[in-house]
Amino acid sequence: MKIGFIGLGIMGSRMAENLQKGGYQLKVYNRTKSKADRLLENGATWAGSPFEAGKNVDVLFTMLENPGAVEELACGPKGFLNAMNENSLWIDSSTVNPSFSERMASIAKENNIRFMDAPVSGSKQPAAEAELLFLVGGEKKDLDSVRSLFDKMGKDAVHMGAAGKGSAMKIMINQLLGQSILAFSESVNLGMAMGLDKKTCMDVLLKTPVTAPIINIYRSRIDNNDYEPNFPLKHLQKDLHLFTETGYELGIPTPLTSAAKEVYGLAKHKNMADLDFTAVFKFLNDKN
Amino acid sequence: MKIGFIGLGIMGSRMAENLQKGGYQLKVYNRTKSKADRLLENGATWAGSPFEAGKNVDVLFTMLENPGAVEELACGPKGFLNAMNENSLWIDSSTVNPSFSERMASIAKENNIRFMDAPVSGSKQPAAEAELLFLVGGEKKDLDSVRSLFDKMGKDAVHMGAAGKGSAMKIMINQLLGQSILAFSESVNLGMAMGLDKKTCMDVLLKTPVTAPIINIYRSRIDNNDYEPNFPLKHLQKDLHLFTETGYELGIPTPLTSAAKEVYGLAKHKNMADLDFTAVFKFLNDKN
Amino acid sequence: MKIGFIGLGIMGSRMAENLQKGGYQLKVYNRTKSKADRLLENGATWAGSPFEAGKNVDVLFTMLENPGAVEELACGPKGFLNAMNENSLWIDSSTVNPSFSERMASIAKENNIRFMDAPVSGSKQPAAEAELLFLVGGEKKDLDSVRSLFDKMGKDAVHMGAAGKGSAMKIMINQLLGQSILAFSESVNLGMAMGLDKKTCMDVLLKTPVTAPIINIYRSRIDNNDYEPNFPLKHLQKDLHLFTETGYELGIPTPLTSAAKEVYGLAKHKNMADLDFTAVFKFLNDKN
Amino acid sequence: MKIGFIGLGIMGSRMAENLQKGGYQLKVYNRTKSKADRLLENGATWAGSPFEAGKNVDVLFTMLENPGAVEELACGPKGFLNAMNENSLWIDSSTVNPSFSERMASIAKENNIRFMDAPVSGSKQPAAEAELLFLVGGEKKDLDSVRSLFDKMGKDAVHMGAAGKGSAMKIMINQLLGQSILAFSESVNLGMAMGLDKKTCMDVLLKTPVTAPIINIYRSRIDNNDYEPNFPLKHLQKDLHLFTETGYELGIPTPLTSAAKEVYGLAKHKNMADLDFTAVFKFLNDKN
After folding, report:
1. In this complex, which of D204, D247, D260 lies closest to C190 when CB atoms are compared?
2. Coil, strand, or helix at residue D91?
3. How confident is the model over A125-182, as pLDDT tens digits?
4. CATH number for the domain including C244?
5. Are B19 and B3 in contact (CB under 8 A)?
6. Are B100 and B116 found together in one domain?
7. Chain D, nearest residue to B273 by Cα
8. How many CA atoms lie within 13 Å of D286's alpha carbon, on the beta-carbon side?
9. Residue D77: pLDDT over 90
10. Could you list the residue range(s) of the whole structural domain that residue A185 is in?
């Protein structure tokens, strides 16, 4: 199976590496070529353009920053959709809004290309350790045909329904992630102001069932004021934006998520865009 | 040990009953006397007034609806603080704001009465099954002197610090509770609009670590549209109000909690005050 | 000058009629043909499609519901951009986001068609009475070439800058409109709960300089519980959405506008989409 | 008529001076004595304590920072309510919540003292120029008995109803003030990001009826980045807090006001508490 891979950021580079380790031959593309160095040293081929990356592959993965980036590389005269073989499969693992996935599915179909949205649950470390969970929208039989690939990169790939349904579930999960950390941050921040110490606040809250378990992983960030990016704040804010945008499209109110999106947006505006998203604690806590 | 107990609502009645089952003799008071019937049949004494309930007891528990109710029964010429013996102990298990607990501690002290704030984590069922967690503010030695009482009503009593610190931790927990359900509700509600079915949404979200485990208990509410009150929505909204009010007092921003408080407030205004707090899902979902 | 006009809703029908009264010959198109009846009786020509409406006209106006509707009728193989003559002028008076106007300007340019965004300030009555204010983005000389047309429909056409700048100013104005009514509604609603009567609340507030003068026009809505649509709530909510979306695109926080958007969104979800936008008062006030 | 005056901040000092200019003899008190210097030089008497200020006066004015400050100086064994003569009149011009005014009215009554809440609309300059508008709650005949005093300090004193109704109207006005500036700031801030210049944004918005006229006074703040306090941001945030707190007390949703309160709260937390409240523009605009 010939595989193309576009997008070698924090997530994509690790996913591609696991495919490579699993024995697959990759043709890779990334805006900044240097991020492909390690993959190339280990035998991957460099595709000089998105178009080239999509040419003569059986499966093309994309792992890009936002819907705009996906559309730019996919569509248009030099887009990879014009390069891909009939009946080949495009798997988009970027986090996008479901209506965007549906639109891509439909454009792919016009080009006789199969499409799956397969965003992931899990960030840097699960990506490195092949522990990702893939949330898949598209044809069940298409998913079954590439399970061996998902097995190299993750622990499971769950079929959520038709095209767009993987993206749907993904933005639901990231909405909860964003809310969890922010609600926890407000709680700890007020706790400290009420005279409790930071450690006690976190210890007690993490023992109660009202706190999302994932915070066990992130608490060290807050403990140590360490906001080196694992999952950049601007990306989490983008996901909250996709959630509220989808709410608007479908006429569904999302008052809490909009509020959360704006708090992350303020933090982003105050120079925290490229810190880890857990820096929202720092935003609330800092006096300047 | 002679024990007074004021406030026999959903929580207080069950707590008092567990003390009674544990062999303690109680003198009880409640605004609506009928709620004391079972306790009286099983041997409790009726105190005709809060003043009477506080008279000649070693320990007085209060489990009331809000700070206003506590202040009304405690202070003033006919309040129980004027009735209690020197050096006796008042334990307030109501959910109140920390500065209120501190003020009550100080008024109690002027009357030579010891004070502890000991709000609980857990609602109707844990109260019935003596599985509550007490979050205690006050003197450690005072807590140690009544551990046997807490043991009858709960699984643990944790010393959080000086007076007010129990209340501090309590409003932190309930803030997370309120946010968790609301964020989950927004997620499931949008998921359904995106074409996923309700059960799938909840199944998948509850398997991921971004969802607070307590939602496993509450999901049946949403599954079954069953909002018979266990923890009334108006009480949860009150707790969010106490959290934001404390934020204001201490100059700490609480943007997400204020947003959540207002969503519950809208639900309360639309005739849902006395439904279970999980009815916030219904509020978001209903078209009228 | 031959003029095409697409979009004959509350606003468009009145604008077109004023052009007609001013002596211009129109070719008109609307999804629902019956809305064109009066214009046709008075001499307008029916264009069977958007394509037809754009053919052989010097100027084409569009007044549509949202960016999606504009894009659908403009672009694509059967879109009016494929029908319009070289160097003819497309004037989009729809309320859209500035980046959308910029994109349309650029697509028009590729087709050698001139473009102006010229959204209006003013609703039903000013449209009928030719009292609209046009906020224009595009080439100054293009604006000057069609001032006679704007004069028939409005009191002024102000050049705001390059393409997109008219749309920019428009969403700023409608954001303030939406906020003004909502803030005023919250104030009056609380005033009534505090024991003041509705009329006193409105009389006093309207005498103070903190209240936007436009509310003098809308207060009768609230006085009389009359929410027959003049400017439908769903359209105002769309404009707030365009504002927050543009904020997201440009990295600018819009916390208050997001909150307002969600309140209107809740009202929309509760069956008020097609009422006048001032029904947000009713949403806050109703108990069910 | 003997007059006491407590509270000589930005507002109180100017109001007292106008009474003095009008020929009234004042007994004054302020926490920081130096602020009374000018009044004392011009003939006022220094009252060493709030108690002293209330003794043997016919009318006592208070103009204090918040309800807590009023309660502290009024009630308690050394409070001025214990010093005031029977049937004398206490006029509280502080901005407080209506339920607080009602409570003060009732405590005053127990002491056989008449009470009026008479907060003002207008800030520093109108205070200096005797152009304030008094919003009065209490007995109409009490208001009529002191119209000559209000005439020295303001342009009008309007009877709003029973005790508390002046405070009710006041928080409604300040809620609109806070929202107006914040909504305007979001608009101008986004306008600049969309490529319009600051001056154009403000010029155009101020010409439209969606903008509150009071912004004409404040725009120079934003033009000149001049946030020297006229009406400190922390005081405006307090007023929004009083508004939302009253909403909570009465079961009225205030979603937009809560959002506004939190934005000002974030600005307050970021070292802007003592700047003018118009600095909320700076908060939104600054990148750090």
Report:
1. D247
2. strand
3. 999 999 999 999 999 999 999 999 999 999 999 999 999 999 999 999 999 999 999 9
4. 1.10.1040.10
5. yes
6. yes
7. D251
8. 14
9. no
10. 169-285
Active-site residues of D: which are they? 170
Nearest to B126 by CA among D179, C36, A208: A208
Residue pairs between chains C and D whose CB atoms are closer than 8 Å: 184
Q: What are phi and psi of D176, to 5 degrees?
A: -65, -35
* Same-domain pairing of C197 and C145: no
Give tens-digit pLDDT for D218-240. 999 999 999 999 899 999 999 99
Residues C10 and C133 in one domain: yes
Using an 8 Å CB-CB cutoff, list chain B residues near A168.
191, 194-196
- The packing angle between helices B98-110 and B67-74, to 10°, is 10
What's the pLDDT tens digit per position in C110-158? 999 999 999 999 889 999 999 999 999 999 999 999 999 999 999 999 9
Percent helix / strand / coil, chain C, rounded to 5: 55, 15, 30
Closest to D70 in 3D by CA, of D51, D53, D92: D92
Distance CA D99, CA C95 (A): 44
CA-based nearest residue in chain D for residue B260: D255
Among chain B, residues having any CB pair with chain D shorter than 8 Å are 241, 244-245, 247-248, 251-255, 258-259, 261-263, 265-266, 268-269, 273
Listed residue (D210, D217, D214, D216) closest to D187, CA to CA: D210
Q: Which two tokens stand for residue D107?
A: 């405590």
d(CA C9, CA C127): 11
Q: Same domain for C219 and C131?
A: no
Residue C87 sits in a domain of what CATH number?
3.40.50.720
DSSP 3-state of C159? strand
Domain end (from D133, D162, D191): D162
Return the biggest CA–CA distance within chain A. Answer: 65
The structural domain count of chain B equals 2
Decide if C212 and D180 are in contact by the 8 Å CB cutoff: yes
ipTM reported for the complex, 2 dp? 0.94
Whether residue C188 sits in one domain with residue C82? no
Q: Concatenated DSSP letters for B61-97? A: EE--SSHHHHHHHHSSTTSGGGTSPTT-EEEE-S---
CB D211 within 8 A of CB C173: no
Q: Is the pLDDT of residue C203 over 90?
A: yes
Q: Same domain for C149 and C201?
A: no
A239's tokens? 């996901």
Tokens of C27: 């070719």
CB contact under 8 A, D254 and B265: yes
Tokens (6 digits) for D117? 């809440």
Nearest CA in chain A to B214: A209
Interface of A with C (CB under 8 A): 241, 244-245, 247-248, 251-255, 258-259, 261-263, 265-266, 268-269, 273
- Residue where a domain stops, chosen among A109, A143, A161: A161
- Indicate if B35 and B82 belong to the same structural domain: yes
Contact A189 B252 (CB under 8 A): yes
Distance CA B194, CA A246 (A): 8
Nearest residue, CB atoms, D195 vs list C161, C172, C284: C161
D chain contacts of residue C174, beta-carbon cutoff 8 Å: 210
Are A83 and A177 contained in the same domain?
no
- Residues of A within 8 A of C258 (CB-CB) are 244, 258-259, 261-262
Nearest-5° Cα angle at A168, A162 to A171: 160
Q: What is the DSSP letter of C211?
A: S
CB C7 within 8 A of CB C63: yes
Minimal CA–CA distance to A189: which of B172, D285, C65, D234? B172
Q: State whether B176 and A205 contact (CB < 8 Å).
A: yes
**Rounded to 5 degrees, what are φ and ψ at A4?**
-105, 150
Nearest residue to D265 (alpha-carbon basis) of D233, D232, D231: D233
